[in-house]
Write a structure and sequence with these properties.
By secondary structure, the protein is of the alpha+beta class. It has two helices and ten strands.
Length: 206
Amino acid sequence: MLNNTLGKLAALGAVALLVVVGVAFAACNGSDDGSTVADTAADEAAHVEGDEATDADEAAGDEGDETTDMGDMDMSDVDPNAYLEAAPKDSLYLVEMTNFAFTPNVLEVNSGEVLEIAVQNVEPLLHDFTIDKIDADVHISYLEGSGQHAHAEPETAAAAADVHFPLSEPGIGVVHLKANEPGEYAFYCTVPGHREAGMEGTLIVR
């Protein structure tokens, strides 16, 4: 009988030990607030989704900043006649500026056509290509040389000219012009004494 009693006690002790081990195992795999492994996995998934949402918000914010930057651009700096550079050319001329002449000194184009004039200063002396008044789209590009005038430009008629392209040293640039009205237009150099010495020519628009 004593042996039976001892056997029952041993069995009860084994069951109690299993219960204690099970509780301890559950405590190790859970959190301090009683959450389970499944709860922890759900929390991690939610955290990842939250990070992705934050990244998306930041990307949207960056795009918004770029849009704002574009909106802050000064559109007055954009030349509305820049299209003339890529437009098909109907007439092409190379005009040399020397002391004291334009060569050639007669240019011809039809009204509404695009004229490209490559203007080259071949001397280390200031010259310019100027047309006072002409109803035309005009775009000027410097390729080589400086376009700085030696005299105070606001004090000259050149400041108000429709076409004015100075080169203060040897170099070349391009005047693109689309005249809207037929007529004859004088082009000349505004440097004092140059026009009087013969530095002028005629643009004929038919």
